[in-house]
């Protein structure tokens, strides 16, 4: 038996059947009902915002639906990035981040212009605390699920993939949370809601790197 034959025999004995990896779109479809349920749960955490009539359907439900869809697109990008040899370019990853910032700024500005509301001075800390923890509460389960789905593909850039998973989870969770928080002041939205989204992205990067390190 030649060395080539011996190596082939060794490799053959080591081979084990594996479940085929679903395409990113099909894996997003698995997450979709969970993402919808979490967004709805976030929107009803303290009841729907009291200024819905002043804002109108487009600014409330329309903007939240657009933000929720953006979160799913980012998740699809993350699951695509996780596949070795099929990753996305750095420019596309940066574009996803820029699109998220632009969407949040636009939604915040238009909502505030339509109906300015502010945090009562006596409750600034409690409002900030609740609106920081709220998106984290509903985004964390989605982050864990997205991280598990991406880790199965053995991503070559686990921190980047994890950050995208966290960003997607934060955007989706906040799409619902903005329907229960009636404060439209940019200082509150950007200081609490957006910080929660950024924290989930950072947590996703750490979780992705941790999962990859535990495999080695």
Structural write-up:
With 216 residues, the protein is an all-alpha fold. The protein has one domain. The chain is 76% helix and 0% strand. It contains seven helices and no strands. Helix 2 runs antiparallel to helix 3. The longest helix is centred in the first third of the chain and has 30 residues. It is elongated, with a radius of gyration of 21 Å. The chain starts with a helix and ends with a helix. The mean pLDDT is 93.
Give a brief description:
This protein has 216 residues and is an all-alpha fold.
Structural class of the secondary structure composition?
Answer: mainly alpha
H/E element sequence = HHHHHHH
Low-confidence stretches: none
What Rg, in angstroms, do the CA atoms define?
Answer: 21 Å
Shape: elongated
Strand content: under 5%
Query: How many strand units?
Result: 0
Give the helix tally: 7
Ends: how far apart?
A: 33 Å
Mean pLDDT across all residues, rounded?
93
Main sheet attributes: strand count, strand direction, barrel closure = none
Number of separate structural domains: 1
Helical residues, percent: over 70%
């Amino acid at each position: 038996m030649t060395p080539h034959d011996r190596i082939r025999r060794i490799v053959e004995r080591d081979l084990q059947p594996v479940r085929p990896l679903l395409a990113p779109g099909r894996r997003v479809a698995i997450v979709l009902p969970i993402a919808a349920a979490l967004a709805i749960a976030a929107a009803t955490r303290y009841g729907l915002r009291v200024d819905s009539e002043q804002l109108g359907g487009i600014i409330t439900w329309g903007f939240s639906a657009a933000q929720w869809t953006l979160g799913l697109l980012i998740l699809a990008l993350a699951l695509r990035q996780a596949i070795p040899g099929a990753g996305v370019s750095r420019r596309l990853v940066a574009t996803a981040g820029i699109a998220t910032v632009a969407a949040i700024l636009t939604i915040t500005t238009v909502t505030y212009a339509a109906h300015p509301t502010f945090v009562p001075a006596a409750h600034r800390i409690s409002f900030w605390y609740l609106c920081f923890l709220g998106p984290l509460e509903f985004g964390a389960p989605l982050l864990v699920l997205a991280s598990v789905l991406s880790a199965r593909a053995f991503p070559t850039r686990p921190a980047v993939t994890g950050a995208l998973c966290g960003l997607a989870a934060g955007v989706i969770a906040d799409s619902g949370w903005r329907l229960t928080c009636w404060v439209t002041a940019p200082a509150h939205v950007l200081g609490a809601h957006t910080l929660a989204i950024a924290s989930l992205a950072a947590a996703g990067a750490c979780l992705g790197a941790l999962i990859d390190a535990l495999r080695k």
